[in-house]
Design goal:
Layout (H helix, E strand, L loop, with lengths): L16 H19 L10 E5 L1 H12 L6 E5 L5 H12 L7 E7 L4 H16 L8 E6 L6 H15 L4
Parallel strand pairs: 1-2, 2-3, 3-4
Length: about 160
Amino acid sequence: MAEYTPTRDFKMGGGEGRSYARLLIEELKPFIDATYRTLVDSTNTALGGSSLGGLITLHIGLEHPEIFGKLAVMSPSLWWNHRSILTLVANKKISTLPRIWLDMGTAEGARHLRDTDQLYSLLIQRGWKRGVDVTYLRDQDAAHDEVAWSNRLGSVLRYLFPTA
C-alpha cells in the first residue's frame, strides 16, 4: 500500500508513491529499454494498474507525461486520502496530455462510480477529448477484482495501442 499511494493518509499511512515512480523511471524502464528492443518515447510507453495501482498510475502519469504517454487507470482507488487525487487533477499544470483509459465496474459501488464520473469530467474540463485522449468505460455488473480487470484488458490495449 505504501508505494501505491501518492499521498500520506493520516489514518492509513502510505504516501511512498514517489519512491515507486523513481524505481520505474530510474531503474526499471532504463533496464527494459537497454535489454529489449523497445520504442522508448512516451507515445509508446504505457503504465497501468487497477485499484491502488490505478491510483498510482494516474498520479505518476500526470507527474511524468514525458515518460508515460499512455495510462490504463482501471477501477482506481480515488477514495484514498479524502480523494486528494481529484484535487491534483483539478489543479495540476499539464502541458502534455497522456492518453487515458479509465474504467469502473458498476458493482464496485455508487460512491466509487461517482468519484470516477467526477474524475472523467475533470479530465474533459482540463482538455482531454472524449474518445481521443480519454475514454471511460462503466463496466456493467463488473466487480472490483482480477476477473473483471482481465476481461477488460483487451479493450484497454486496443484503445491505448490502436492499429493503423
